[in-house]
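Exercise 7. Given the encoded structure of a 273-residue chain, write a plausible sequence.
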């Protein structure tokens, strides 16, 4: 490698060197698609986290980590004679041109909704051309997606056939109905004796909650990340408040802990403690 080497070519050469049976890295040589897949998913979430924090320096680093995952998979495929990194780049380039006939061709659409319908029609045609026999409106939704994301995709596909609530009102009513069904299952007895039914009813509740987010045009993952960050921020604050008072949080009763939680919320909102 020299200074004239393109950055992507340098990265490809680094990965090939790491996977080299003679002198490569033992850890990298031992990996396969299944062992690297969890890292790929993790790096995608790290990208999302950097975006949530509006940290562009971190985003640059995390995008690099995610790119490394693509390079890693492509190198392993190349070793098997399946495909190489250039094939990946060509395939996605061709797909983008094919799916944007209004940009790279003569097609025109009235609005984004019409363009989205055409996008889905092109995807269906691609699946048929690839020999897929599933003709359902739900065909092609990956089972490898996080379940909250898969729920939204299933709902969105069904909605395109007309199977959808007309607005958030009926969804909220359904949410209350599902909450009552969960409550009824808890009332049946010990959780250990009723775990399967609770899982079923709580699953329904979460599915409807995801549907409500879809109607609000709110990304479920982003909303949950925000809730997680809020909880973590407030919990750490209440820990510190308790520590400052000389009363470690684990030694306090629940009502005392809740008082610290309320103090942390007031401080976060700019109120006086």
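Solution.
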């Amino acid at each position: 490698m020299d200074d004239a080497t393109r950055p992507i070519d340098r990265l490809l050469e680094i990965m090939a060197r790491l996977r080299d049976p003679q002198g490569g890295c033992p850890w990298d040589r031992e990996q396969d698609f299944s062992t690297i897949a969890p890292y790929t998913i993790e790096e995608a979430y790290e990208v999302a986290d950097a975006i949530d924090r509006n940290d562009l320096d971190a985003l640059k680093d995390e995008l690099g980590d995610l790119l490394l995952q693509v390079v890693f998979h492509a190198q392993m495929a190349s070793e098997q004679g399946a495909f190489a990194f250039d094939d990946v780049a060509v395939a996605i380039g061709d797909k983008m041109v094919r799916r944007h006939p209004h940009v790279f061709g003569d097609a025109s659409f009235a609005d984004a909704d019409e363009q989205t319908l055409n996008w889905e029609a092109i995807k269906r045609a691609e699946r048929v051309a690839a020999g897929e026999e599933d003709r359902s409106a739900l065909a092609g939704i990956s089972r490898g997606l996080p379940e909250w994301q898969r729920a939204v995709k299933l709902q969105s596909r069904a909605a395109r056939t007309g199977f959808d609530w007309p607005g958030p009102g009926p969804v909220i009513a359904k949410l209350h109905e599902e909450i009552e069904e969960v409550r009824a299952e808890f009332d049946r007895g010990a959780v250990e004796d009723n775990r399967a039914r609770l899982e079923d009813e709580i699953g329904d509740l979460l599915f409807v909650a995801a549907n409500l987010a879809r109607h609000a045009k709110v990304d479920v993952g982003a909303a949950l990340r925000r809730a997680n960050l809020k909880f973590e921020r407030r919990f750490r604050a209440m820990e510190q408040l308790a520590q400052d008072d000389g009363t470690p949080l684990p030694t306090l009763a629940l009502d005392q802990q809740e008082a610290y939680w309320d103090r942390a919320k007031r401080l976060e909102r700019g109120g006086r403690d």
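Remark. The chain is about 70% helix and 0% strand. Students should compare their own answers with the one above.
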